[in-house]
Amino acid sequence: MSAKVEKKRVAILISGRGSNMVSLIEAARAPDYPAEIVLVLSNRPDAAGLDRARAAGIPARAIDHKAFPDRAGFDAALQAELEGAGIELIVLAGFMRILTDAFVEAWAGRMINIHPSLLPLFKGTHTHERALEAGVRLHGCTVHYVVPELDAGPIVAQAAVPVLPGDDADTLSARVIVQEHRLYPAALALIAGGGAVLEGGRVRFTAQARDAGAAILSL
């Protein structure tokens, strides 16, 4: 008999359709995947991803940010839901709210995000348009820990795609998101399984996970 895999309890935060969320849910169905998606939260009641999560049998709730007078009030409601569900790791997947520094610091080392560029290039929004304007030959996506400074946390993993002649923002985005759907589940597995450890503001791969880490970086 194989040993039972200990699974970290994970919440996914979304604001829209949740395409990365779906890739994470699908990966987490594997018996040996070290994370369990137990909750999906959105700041938008009309987020299409909520119904997609419910269809997968995962509790999904909206906390409408417009119902709160400030960010701190919204974050407090978010924190209450997370604590109530016994969440150990937060995964941001197209979550379009800037969280307060206090919330981010409370989850330091336990919250990750995926950004559609090869950080530290093109922090913020409109990354594909900016990559094309800059004339880069490689673009891609980055999984990183969340820190108070936007898109500046320690990098867990990256995947690169070529920028092809004739690309526009839509074609480049489509190529990047294919890699996002591969990279995010792999990076979450590394973190939840203890293969990627945050030390001194940098991510270190443990010896048993080093080969897997190298494979992710070369996707």
UniProtKB/TrEMBL annotation:
Any Pfam family: Formyl_trans_N
GO biological processes: 'de novo' IMP biosynthetic process
EC number: 2.1.2.2
Keyword annotations: Purine biosynthesis, Transferase
GO cellular component, one term: cytosol
Claim: Transferase is one of the keywords in the record: yes
Active-site annotation: H115
Gene3D superfamilies: Formyl transferase, N-terminal domain
Residues bound to (6R)-10-formyltetrahydrofolate: R71, M96, R97, I98, L99, N113
Residues binding N(1)-(5-phospho-beta-D-ribosyl)glycinamide, per UniProt: G18, S19, N20
Catalytic activity annotation: N(1)-(5-phospho-beta-D-ribosyl)glycinamide + (6R)-10-formyltetrahydrofolate = N(2)-formyl-N(1)-(5-phospho-beta-D-ribosyl)glycinamide + (6S)-5,6,7,8-tetrahydrofolate + H(+)
Keyword Transmembrane helix: no
Site (Raises pKa of active site His): D151
Domain Formyl transferase N-terminal: 8-188
Cited function: Catalyzes the transfer of a formyl group from 10-formyltetrahydrofolate to 5-phospho-ribosyl-glycinamide (GAR), producing 5-phospho-ribosyl-N-formylglycinamide (FGAR) and tetrahydrofolate.
HAMAP family in the cross-refs: PurN
Protein name per UniProt: Phosphoribosylglycinamide formyltransferase
Protein species of origin: Methylorubrum populi (strain ATCC BAA-705 / NCIMB 13946 / BJ001) (Methylobacterium populi)
